[in-house]
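Morning F.,

Quick status update on the modeling queue. The single chain you submitted on Monday has been processed. Sequence for confirmation:
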Amino acid sequence: MARPRTREASWFGMAAVAIALLACNDVPAWRLGDGTFQTCAVASDLACAPFSAPTPVVEVASIGDNDEKPTLTADMLEMYFLSDRAGGLGNGDVWQSTRATTGDPWGTPMLVTSVSSTSRETSPAISADGLTLCVSSDRPGGLGGLDIWTSTRPTRSDDWSVPVPVTVLNSSEDEIPRPPGDHSTEMPLSRRPTSNDPYQLFSATRAGASSPWTSPVPETSIDTGHVDDDGYLMDDGVTLYLSSDRLNGVQDLFVTERPDDTSPYAPPVALTALNTTAYAERDPWVSSDSHEIYFVSDRTGTRQIFHATR
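Structure tokens below.
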């Protein structure tokens, strides 16, 4: 179902970006997460006011283990992520860390036993309000491969319900969820036919946060035949962060936008302030004001969660 949300000056923003890529003396405009524009100081970087140098989130790290797929509630007081650390049920499990305010350090991670299992879990995706948690799993009861499962809770102090498969989003292929964007009406999930194939971005939409999803369709304007996944759609419905190996065969972070939520995306531009040349960066999660980003990099030798601001 179409959800028209045309943004005034969207085409100006896209045109300015395209010009900047051709002539770096031009200064493009960039939309913030709240729909406003500001002038970019660096024409060659699509991110307005480039992100600071990223630092690892040491409070949730487990030395020698892999932590990835960070996903936060909108108030940034709960973080869910995947980890293969000791204390889980096996094959990667969902862990949670909380804090009282955004100025506090993250608390000691705890296993989310309600959505973890002895099967493989990956890519937890928490809703903005913290009441719905999706996860990808190959546990029995799905359609084959990794499928998307969902769990809910009445309040954020309650336990999670037993996960159930979201049949309309699943197939015999592998599917991994991402947090819904565009005010919870669009999910930029990823799909691949087999484990030997690259993930590609798909989109599923719905009329409202409590409505059923439509069948996923491929995002052909982004698909390169390489790995294009980890989509994170902002609530403006037009700004998309993702990871891709399109430049040098290693996953990097990118950002793109479109004029409205039914149009193709512009060519993604790399977030050079966050990327490395030899290591993989992926799994972006961006705050509603676009000033903070959490992502994953293996630059320390294992996959670890990083944070940057602007």
